[in-house]
Write the structure tokens for this entry.
Amino acid sequence: MFDLDLWTEIVSALKKNRLRSFMTAFGVFWGIFMLIIMSGAGKALENGVLDGVKAFATNSAFFWTERTSVPHEGFQRGRRWNYETSDIDYIRENVKEVEYLSPRLFANNQSGNNTIRGERTGAFNVFGDYPDYFKIDRWTPVQGRLINEIDMLQERKVCNIGERVVEVMFEKDENPIGQYLKISGVYFQVVGVIHAETRINIGGGKKEETIIIPFTTMRKAYNYGNKVYFFSVTSKPGTKVSDLEEKLKVLLKDRHKIAPEDQQAIGSFNIEKEFVKFNALFLGIQGLTWIVGIGTLLAGVIGVSNIMLVIIKERTQEIGIQRAIGATPGTVIKHIVAESVFLTVMAGYIGLSLGVAVLEILNQILLKAEGEMFFRNPEVNLTMALSALAVLVVAGIIAGLIPAKRAVSIKPIDAIRDEG
Amino acid sequence: MIRLNNIHKSYVMGNSSLHVLKGIDLHIEQGDFVSIMGSSGSGKSTLLNILGMLDNYDNGSYHLSGNLIANMSEKRAAKLRNELVGFVFQSFNLISFKNAMENVALPLYYKGVPRKKRNLIAMEYLEKLGLKDWANHMPNEMSGGQKQRVAIARALISKPKIILADEPTGALDSATSYEVMDILREINDDGITVIIVTHEHDIAAMTRQIIRLNDGRIHEIIRNGELKNFQKSYIHGLETA
Ligand SMILES: Nc1ncnc2c1ncn2[C@@H]1O[C@H](COP(=O)(O)OP(=O)(O)OP(=O)(O)O)[C@@H](O)[C@H]1O
Ligand SMILES: [Mg+2]
């Protein structure tokens, strides 16, 4: 039942008590607004970071070599060394916890234009990889296919190229598949254009500027011998990659005459550890959002009740007068509660809309912004927002009910006499 | 119209109790114009509040227009107040955030009269009391006399049978007081019972019956011949002053 008169009464009462209404509304508005912004920002950070890593095998670890830092078995400290293909074979055969193992070579000199096609030249990151690499750090073929076992076996001079490579080395409407690129003096046929699914970057350089050729081809074409610069492993289900990482380190140190206590000689990195950190971070952010959110909400509730309390005196007398001239307790309670609920809902709604609008604007800016973004797609947690609003509405009802109940429970004359 | 029978009223504060009305018997007819006098603390306001159903009594009986006023629900009391009684207070008691017209119209709102209609009626009453131009002013923009006239208009709008006024001139200067009394007399001329509480003899002298309270009891009721003398002495005193 819509009672126009009731609403005009309520709106005029609120309008005439501007400061009081504003203070009440502001508490609610601010509570909801901050809640939306904070949860949105937290979510955006989570999205931004997780988007870049979620396609990455979380059970993966990466190894490279550094100079030794401890003299051992007659070797001086500061020795340069490399992994060897025999290490790879040995691990494959003897370490059962390994699921995928993908050794990598990269060009010794990554700077300068290393890729030529007719008039065009470009400087790209050239890697020699095993097909298993695509299972660890996910790439998808946009055009053509990924490098496979047959390419490896036959040491074929084929390559996968990133999207930026296509832009630089080909005309706009040219199909790169089947074309040749001269990479550091050797011709390779393009068999696929690939797109990186993650932004985790191992080996440096932009992922769009990557050229991947078969490991075996690279070794042979550029005379790397049996060197391996870098390798990635994933652990089998049930094995913690951190444990595998430690095991492999011990094993490799032994094979290469490196002191067991040398902390520097083997560089390694393990995604699982990073994920644990991320997860802890997001848990922390979420926890913080909730704590601060509940805090702001509580502040809003207290604000509403407090203002209601402050006005109890003023209201009590006003209510006493209204009762003297014929207002029934029902009317009085209906009025005050409706007033309070109307105010909180309005303020909450404005807070909600404004919060969503601010997040949307932020989103638009982020979408336009170029480059690496660790802040993307701020989502509104609508459930959270609506439950917060519900809490505030209930608070509004109670905040209205308390003075109203009090004012109608005492004798009208006591209400009128009530001196603020 | 009003029939009080051995009314007692005590205020209880903590463990002490103050016996304020100690057996009031009173009979007021429709159309009477009554003033209640007595020293401060004698129970005048208490009596008036009981008459207006703003307060309850402890013992005795109170009949208003044939209704026994005792142990009724607040809803029913509100309805009776709205129908039968109009209040005028010493401190005006207007709703501060409503303008003159809205204040006057308020009792009709509780009766369910639509906005347009009640505002129209409110304007009529304001016009009667010479406040047409002040209809859109807020209470804090008006003088005491103007506020009291607004309050009277508000008391009248629901066409009550009784107007109860607790020191309606208490906050006004004497010229303004007399204007207010003239208005109350006109109201009384229309047949509405008017009961006022006052300290001032000249004000009381303008009514047709004076009830003197002393220590919670009716000390004397002055009317007819005695009233003439009362009037003569006080109105005379006023003229020589
Ligand atoms: N709500 C109350 N609680 C306790 N005592 C009260 C209350 N109201 C009035 N009294 C006491 O009751 C007595 C009578 O009060 P009342 O207001 O009726 O006096 P009054 O005749 O109107 O006096 P005044 O001329 O000063 O207005 C006083 O002693 C007063 O202190
Ligand atoms: Mg009094």
